[in-house]
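BUG: 3D viewer hangs when loading the predicted structure for this chain

Environment: internal workstation, default settings.
Expected: structure renders.
Actual: progress bar stalls at 90%.

Input used:
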Amino acid sequence: MKISNILSLSLCCFFFLISCKNDTQPKAVTKAPQQEKTMLFPPEPTKNGIHYGWLKNANVYQLNTRQYSQEGNFTGVLQHLKRLRNMGIDIISLTPIFPISQTNKQGTLGNPYAVSDFKAVNPALGTKRDFKILVDSIHSLRMKVLLDFPVASTGRDCKWLSDHADWFSPREYGNDSDIVALNYKNKDLNSEMMSCMEYWVDQFKIDGYTMHEAGKVPNDFWAQASSQLLSKKQNVLLISDAETSDHVNNNYFHASYNAGFYQLSNAIAKGNKRAKDIEAWYAKNQKQYKNGWPINYTSNYDKNTTEGSVFDNLGDASKCMAALAMTFDGMPLIYGGQEEPLRKGLKPNEKDPIPFNSYKYEDFYTRMLQVKHINTALWNGRYGVAPTILHADNQIFAFEKNNKGNEVFCLFNLSDKAAEYEMHKDYMQWESVAAARRFDVVKGQKINLAPWSFRVVTNR
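Structure tokens produced before the viewer hung:
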């Protein structure tokens, strides 16, 4: 996805390297061209003092409330908020909080995407007052709150189904499904759905939405929705879970889920693709996407519940791919529990709390996310810079970013065999965060990389 003009900022830089694994000789530099992009909101304060620049270096954390604590409710999340803020999280995206339809209910708890009422909360999670306390607590730590909104369907208990049958396309999922597809050809439905979205912004001051199955909803609705929501809250954040270029190119959404990155990283980890395939994939993406930026992830709610944990899918490559997701091009999303790390796929419709205990990967994520805050080369969208790919072969993938002196060099061995990389230039007095030592290398020096290891270094 394309990254545009650099926001001119003068910041002091940190030094950071994160440890791991890599191979051979650098080839000719290929640099992605940069183009001007329009945004849904400007990067500077408006005359009334509202600031729109908070997205520039933001990191997202997707949180499944009912699986996040033993309590499985809004109150159970509160104890984690300060820890998440210290880890470098700026945006908490909550999976659906709405009441769950009981007709054709899946499992013991039901499917959270089978919504029966878009203006109520699931009583198993708490009350509206409990939710307001959670939102206010997140805001008090200078973080933002998004709701995952299942916009393409409702549960079978939704009162709309009996009151407005023409709002639905009931044949799409079949009679045994717990959800029914909505028919956006009906303009009354459009108006009611907009009212539901505005409700949470107005009444609870949430900061935006991740729109679930956004690709199943026509673009004329998104044109209306983005305009109306921005009129309610000028710095509202809109994320599409669909990898559809129209959503960002037409300024309906600020960002969209990067399914292509997820699929490619999994294919590389399984040996079906190679490091060099990233270069061709990225070039294609750059041509397709003109605005916004991608949300990069190695796991999320859908992937964890349907495909298993990152260890099931990426194996020994899990930390290496996480580092790539947090540095390459886009806004990183961490799924709740990855910092533990979460080594299983959670049961989606049963009580199956995350076994928080060791927080073994928390330091890794903290270092990676905090350097994103400090180094402008890693910032999102128009605020940062596109990567310059230095080398891509069967094993090694290397790139750098330079935003007016804020520099990052990233070196990955994306294979299960040891590799070697010959440095393309000097890096003197750069620092390794994970190893707590300086990174001093000269042009021509060879770096040995273990399987699935990496180096992420920044200048001070």
